[in-house]
């Protein structure tokens, strides 16, 4: 004031000369008002609104206005701007996903807000895809064992196997498994070689050995049946019925000579004889194909055994007895496992030469083989008679060919039989 600067309130005077040249005193009642200042230090997240202005960066900012006494009021802001944070996750999960304490079971976009390290919001966003696990159940029945996912199971039970499905989640397969058992059995059988091939359960068995047939048992599994087959070289049996003229005593009976002479304790055994088998193709051979002996019983029956190789072929039967005329069957007979042939029912059951009946009629429909071929030369003649006479003259007793009646002694009755048959010029008849 008047060239002086005043900074405090007070009464100030100033003297000068007025226009008259006199002192002019001027008094100043001065009041000094003060400006004001303020400073604020603050921090904010992302932006800060101050005195109508929005600040998004840290810095020192000032603002001037008029204070209450009309002077400047200068406000200073020391501002720190801190940043919120965000994060985004894209997640795929199977069935459910646990995130920030929450379990999510459906796909969607989820957010979660918390405070970051500078105290601002931290917003996490989850892009969630929920994929589903899958299950399957099968009920299986198997025999003995079941192979599943490289594991072999031999007992019934509920089994599970976990792998990944098409969306990468668990795929749980459950098997309700029932193990059923196969069964086995063994049979033992013997057959004769001439019965081959042996047909068993549709299998043609041609030799000894083990054969297996497969069936389905009660639980629908395999049932294996094993046949242990033994092939035997069995004999074939020839059962004949024939009577010897001299031994025949009537009513279908003959003298049991072997028993009478005490060669056996069997009271029904008459004598031994041989039966030859001749193949029609081998009649010119010096020897028969097969020959065997048997015991002729008083009822005319005799059972003979031959090798299995005779089975299935046709043969003539030739009867040879120690004092009877050799007699052949009328034709070839097919030899089976058991063959029956009866010479007694008709003369045409024996092979004839066309001159004489091939067998002797004994009455009551019974035919017998001629007796009297004592020396077994194939005919009944003087030579047989001479031998019989000689034995009779000596009162021969025992097992002699001249005993045509089989009573143990050679006598007049044997002579008569040989003589009578000799007059018929009987000679064996062969199909040669």
How would you portray this structure in words?
By secondary structure, the protein is mostly beta strands. Strands 26, 27, 29, 30 and 31 form a five-stranded antiparallel β-sheet that branches. α2 runs antiparallel to α3. The termini are far apart. The model has no long low-confidence stretch (mean pLDDT 94).
Approximately how much beta-strand content do the residues carry? over 45%
DSSP E strands, number: 34
Tell me the Rg in angstroms.
70 Å
Give unreliable regions as ranges.
none
Average of pLDDT: 94
How would the global form be characterised? rod-shaped
SS class: mainly beta
Helix content: under 10%
Number of helices: 3
| Main β-sheet description | 5 strands, antiparallel
N-to-C span:
190 Å
Topology:
Layout (H helix, E strand, L loop, with lengths): L9 E8 L5 E8 L5 E10 L2 E3 L2 E3 L3 E8 L5 E11 L2 E10 L2 E3 L2 E3 L3 E8 L5 E11 L2 E10 L2 E3 L2 E3 L3 E8 L5 E11 L2 E10 L5 E3 L2 E3 L3 E8 L5 E11 L3 E6 L6 E3 L2 E2 L2 H4 L8 E10 L11 E8 L3 E6 L7 E7 L6 E2 L4 E2 L3 E5 L17 E4 L2 E3 L13 H12 L18 H11 L10
Parallel strand pairs: 3-7, 8-12, 13-17, 18-22, 23-32
Antiparallel strand pairs: 1-2, 4-5, 6-7, 9-10, 11-12, 14-15, 16-17, 19-20, 21-22, 23-28, 24-25, 26-27, 26-29, 29-30, 29-31, 33-34
């Amino acid at each position: 004031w008047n060239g002086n600067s005043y900074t405090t309130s007070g009464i100030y005077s100033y003297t000068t000369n007025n226009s008259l040249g006199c002192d002019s005193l001027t008094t100043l009642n001065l009041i000094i008002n003060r400006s004001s200042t303020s400073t604020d230090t603050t921090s904010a997240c992302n932006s800060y609104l101050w005195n109508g202005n929005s600040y998004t960066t840290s810095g020192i900012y000032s603002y001037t206005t008029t204070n209450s006494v009309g002077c400047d009021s200068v406000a200073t802001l020391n501002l720190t701007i801190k940043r919120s944070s965000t994060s985004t996750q894209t997640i795929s999960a199977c069935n459910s996903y646990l995130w920030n304490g929450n379990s999510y079971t459906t796909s969607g976009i989820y957010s979660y807000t918390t405070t970051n390290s500078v105290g601002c919001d931290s917003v996490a966003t989850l892009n969630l895809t929920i994929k589903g696990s899958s299950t399957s159940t099968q009920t299986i029945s198997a025999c003995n064992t079941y192979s599943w996912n490289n594991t072999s199971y031999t007992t019934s039970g509920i089994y599970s196997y976990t792998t990944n499905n098409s969306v990468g989640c668990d795929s749980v397969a459950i098997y309700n498994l029932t193990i059923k058992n196969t069964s086995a059995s063994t049979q033992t059988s013997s057959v004769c070689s001439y019965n081959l091939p042996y047909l068993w359960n549709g299998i043609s068995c041609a030799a000894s050995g083990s054969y297996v047939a497969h069936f389905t048992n009660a639980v629908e599994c395999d049932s294996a049946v094993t046949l242990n087959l033994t092939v035997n070289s069995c004999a074939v049996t020839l059962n004949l019925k024939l009577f010897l003229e001299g031994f025949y005593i009537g009513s279908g009976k003959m003298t049991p000579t072997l028993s009478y002479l005490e060669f056996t304790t069997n009271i029904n055994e008459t004598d031994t004889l041989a039966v030859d088998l001749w193949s029609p193709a081998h009649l010119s051979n010096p020897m028969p194909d097969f020959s065997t002996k048997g015991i002729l019983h008083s009822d005319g029956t005799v059972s003979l055994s031959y090798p299995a190789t005779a089975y299935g072929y046709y043969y003539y039967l030739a009867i040879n007895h120690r004092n009877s005329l050799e007699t052949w069957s009328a034709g070839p007979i097919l030899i089976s496992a058991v063959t029956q042939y009866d010479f007694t029912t008709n003369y045409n059951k024996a092979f004839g030469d066309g001159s004489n009946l091939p067998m002797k009629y004994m009455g009551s429909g019974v035919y017998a083989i001629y007796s009297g071929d004592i020396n077994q030369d194939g005919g009944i003649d003087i030579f047989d008679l001479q031998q019989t006479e000689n034995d009779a003259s000596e009162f021969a007793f025992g097992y002699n060919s001249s005993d045509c009646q089989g009573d143990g002694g050679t006598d007049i009755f044997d002579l008569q039989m040989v003589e009578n048959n000799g007059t018929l010029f009987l000679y064996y008849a062969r199909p040669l």
